[in-house]
Amino acid sequence: MPYWLLLLILICPIAFADDSSKEAQKIIEDMEFLYRGVASRATLTMTVITPRHKRTLKMSSASLGQDYALYRILEPKKESGISTLKREQEMWNYFPKINKVIKVPPSMMMGSWMGSDVTNDDLLRETELIDAYDVSMKITESEYVITLLPKSDTVTVWAKIDYIVNRKAMLPKEQIFYDERDRKIRRMEFSETKEFEGTFLPSRISVTPINKPGYKTIVEYTSLNFEPSDVEKNIFTRRNLTTRF
């Protein structure tokens, strides 16, 4: 066999793997950007279902890129005003009943937000997936199936994530989270695509802990504006965390 042919055979799989990895990273970037945009303002509801009860929270949110986000509960009245602020690598919660701001340590990013199956990391999208995980991809007729494995320095409870994207619509379809024994622990499903000011997105995100029967959290977007004139860096302050916006 000619040397040049042998070299081509050896190099091509590596090149194809690199191209596939870059394509997978770009797809994930696009999916994560869908809900965040350059800036956004939204209203949404979060329904927390357990075997014993069901409760629904109405919330407002504002975000600016990856580094800034502010969430505030509007209803029910007993929880109104509870707020969460993210500024770059820092996060705080405000509880109006006790008039106290509490900083959330990095170790709690995978903790539950407001007793739901949504984590602090889910809510604020703290983890930049393509930076924290190595990616590989399989392509079927209808889906991109992207597998994410945490890098050695990534702090996470997930040993693997499958990120499934609808190829035709180029919208997220499902995420499946695994533990270190390769057991499915949590499923996040995206459904009910709606138009928000010219952009089509799944308006409903269902989070189901597979190892906890009867538990589920459903997040539904009721409005989403990607060109808010009032969302600027100066609203993401601890002072604004304790006031209405």
- What's the count of strands? 13
Work out the strand percent: 35-45%
Please state the average pLDDT score. 86
Helical content stands at: 10-25%
| Main sheet record | 13 strands, antiparallel
* Low-pLDDT residue intervals, each spanning 5 or more residues: 4-17
Q: CATH first level: which class?
A: Mainly Beta
Strand order of the largest sheet: 6-5-4-3-2-1-13-12-11-10-9-8-7
List the helices and strands and how they pair.
Elements: H1 3-36, E1 39-49, E2 54-64, E3 68-75, E4 83-87, E5 90-95, E6 100-103, H2 120-124, H3 129-132, E7 133-139, E8 143-150, E9 160-166, E10 171-178, E11 184-196, E12 199-209, E13 216-225, H4 238-241
Antiparallel strand pairs: 1-2, 1-13, 2-3, 3-4, 4-5, 5-6, 7-8, 8-9, 9-10, 10-11, 11-12, 12-13
Short recap of the structure:
By secondary structure, the protein is of the alpha+beta class. It has 4 helices and 13 strands.
Could you characterize what this model shows?
With 245 residues, this protein is of the alpha+beta class. The protein has one domain (3-241): outer membrane lipoprotein receptor (LolB), chain A, CATH 2.50.20.10. The protein is built from four helices and 13 strands. A 13-stranded antiparallel sheet has the order 6-5-4-3-2-1-13-12-11-10-9-8-7. The longest helix is centred in the first third of the chain and has 34 residues, at 3-36. The radius of gyration is 20 Å and the shape is globular. The protein starts with a helix and ends with a helix. Mean pLDDT is 86; it is low at 4-17.
